[in-house]
Amino acid sequence: MTWLLNPLALAERMNDTTQDLLVLDCRFDLTDPTLGVNQWSAGHIPGAAYADLDQDLSAPVLQGVTGRHPLPSQEAWQQTLRRWGITPDTHIVVYDGANSMFAARAWWMLRWAGLSRVQVLDGGLAAWQAADLPLNEQVNVRQPSELMVSCPSDWLVTADELVQDAAQYQLFDARALPRFSGETEPLDHKAGHIPGAVCADFAQNLQADGRFRSASELRARFAELGLAAPASASSPTCYTEAPTTVCYCGSGVTACHNILAMQLADLPQPLLYAGSWSEWINDDARPIATGS
User: Fold this and answer.
1) pLDDT tens-digit profile of 178-192?
2) CB 117 within 8 Å of CB 89
3) Residue 126: phi, psi to the nearest 5?
4) Is the CB of residue 253 less than 8 Å from the CB of residue 101?
5) Across the chain, which distance is largest between two alpha carbons, in Å?
6) 242 and 270 Cβ atoms separated by less than 8 Å
7) What is the pTM of this model?
8) Domains, the chain, ranges and CATH?
């Protein structure tokens, strides 16, 4: 299964009652946490449930300890997936407003739980509406499931690991250059980036219409950024001395967008530093770099 789905293909699958399909609306606004759910209530892809970044896709924040969107525990995430009625056979399609930054977080987390039938609606709700497809307020009522999940710890890297063996990792920061360089910081109490990281603004994974660039374009993009990776995902031994790729951002959300883009480019899946910049800066002993 490819990781992207276009709106017309989704509309066709919604008419196939033989498939167990769940659509998740992941719209959210970092500066107005109620905006996404209000937009969903006003109209969404027919039958879509709402996946709230703060309530469903994150654990409670521990001030001074975690980042702004810590990952939920395996147990809590399992309970959310059960509440949505997800089984191993459920085909899940996630979307947000346009640029897939929140949808990518859901995509990563669903796969982290061991679910394989997960796709991102390419271009998000904007693409759905551009295809003249309908919105309504309908929500499908699903029976809770008994899904069992196993979330692998080796998909993640911790701040301590990054500090202790920095040379082992190649870091890609998904934030835009002004935040990466420390020129501005609208969300966190310190500005800058983790030393040695490369600025890999997630928005550059997209075309002007919000759809992802082609696989070849994405491969070229990350090669230009200096990604030390195998020539293809099927030949992981090409660069045995290459450092481990790590994606991070402000709070572990847009980092998943870069992970998705690398997967679309047939590159090996990088690790996620889920705490990201907003966790990193909680410890004054962790180094900070500025500039581009």
Assistant:
1) 999 999 999 999 999
2) yes
3) -60, -40
4) yes
5) 56
6) no
7) 0.95
8) 4-130 (3.40.250.10), 153-280 (3.40.250.10)
